[in-house]
Each structure stands twice: as C-alpha cells, then as structure tokens.
C-alpha cells in the first residue's frame, strides 16, 4: 500500500483515501501530495498512477559502497501490477465506449492497489468498498475479462512467432551444414601450393572460414545459451583445425580475438546478454 503526505496540512494519507481527504479536510486546496517512501511530489491526479514504490532496503542501500539490493521476486505483486496495467489500458482505449459511470468506476479502481482478480471476490469488493450496484460491477468485470483475454491472445501469438523464427533459423543452419558436408571436394591444383598458416581473404572481404555459420551452429546446440568464454574456446578449436595448426602464433591469436568480437556483433541470429550468448529472440 502506497502512503502519501499531504503537502497542505502535513497529514499522512493512504492512497485510496486521498480523494476523500481533499473533499473534506483540505477541500479548498489543490491536490498536492508526496510519497512517503520515494519522497516524490504529485500534483492533481498524478498520484493515481503511482501504484508501486521502492522498498526500505532500496531506500537505505549504500550505493557508494557497492551494495545493490536484489529485486524481490514476488509473483503475486507482479500479477497485481499486470492487473493494474489492464485497468489503465481500458481507460486509454477507445474500443469499449465507456459510459461516464463505467469510466468513473475504472478511475476509482486505478487508485486501488489490492483489486481482486477473481470474479466473485471482485464483485463483492467493488460492491462493498466502492458502492457500485451489482449490475454495474458485472459490467466492469466483463470488460476487464475481455481485455485480459485479448492480452493473453496477443502474448501467445508473439511467443508463437518467436518460436517459429528460432525453429526456422535452426533448420536453415542445419540445411547449410548438410549441403556443406555433401559438396564434392575441390580438385587439387597441379601446382602444389605452400601450406597456409593464416587465413587469406577472398576479394579483400572474408576468408573461407564461415564465422557467422560456425558461431550460430555452436550456440544453436545450447537451448539456454552458452557462456561467452566457452563459446570463444569452442570456436578457437574449430579455427585452429581450419588452419591445420596445433597452436596459434601470437599474431594469429590476436587476429582471432579481433575477428571473434567483430563477427559476434555482426551475426544477427545471435544476441549477447552480459556473459551469455543466445539465439536471438
């Protein structure tokens, strides 16, 4: 529950009671409150959108000493915040053509941070706490349920799209690997060339070592991604084998590191998240 301090009279007020406070004690004053946790000032109806604030641990954590508070994984709080997002989305949407009475009901709900998410409890809550008639409470619930289902469908469609893109990328890579394995070996030149210890560029752009394909192939085998250092070691092994040497020279090692960093950034099928490399979503 968010608490505010009235900047007119100094009284502490719970969020749901702010409206009543300015209708009674400070009725001749403009709404002007400060959050008791983050100390931020709110004017007019700005306080309505302030549904969640910092914790005590976050408030007093010493950033200068390197102490960082871990965010609490409160699933119930996350679900409640999602519920409030639905209420705000309905108010911002022109799809529902809300009557003044229904709009007023949703605006009141927006200022409450413990709205029930089950139909029976919701109807009892708005009937007892907000004095809404049963019929109007049912109308409000029906709109909430419609918007919730719409958001669920949109999320499922987005997840399906991401999954299809990942599957297509993996299949394409597998097909490329298969074609590379089945390709006939190149005929040896009549003139025996000297063995190469370093890759030589073709047309000044890139060598026959396919950096992007090799990176994607290694990462694609790891469902949850692969650590950057482990990916570097695996690719180094393939690169060394490609050059037909046991160990890289100092010059080759520097060249490998430089190309590794560059090609990892250029490979659109992958994304780097800190020390973890995953298939791009």
From TrEMBL:
PANTHER family: CELL GROWTH-REGULATING NUCLEOLAR PROTEIN, CELL GROWTH-REGULATING NUCLEOLAR PROTEIN LYAR
Protein's UniProt name: Cell growth-regulating nucleolar protein
Keyword match Metal-binding: yes
Chief localisation class: nucleus
TM spans (from-to): none
Gene name as annotated: LOC108085144
Compositionally skewed regions (Basic and acidic residues) per UniProt: 176-194
Domain of life: Eukaryota
One GO MF term attached to the UniProt entry: DNA binding
Ranges for region Disordered: 170-210
A Gene Ontology term for the protein's cellular component: nucleolus
Species for this entry: Drosophila kikkawai
Localization: Nucleus
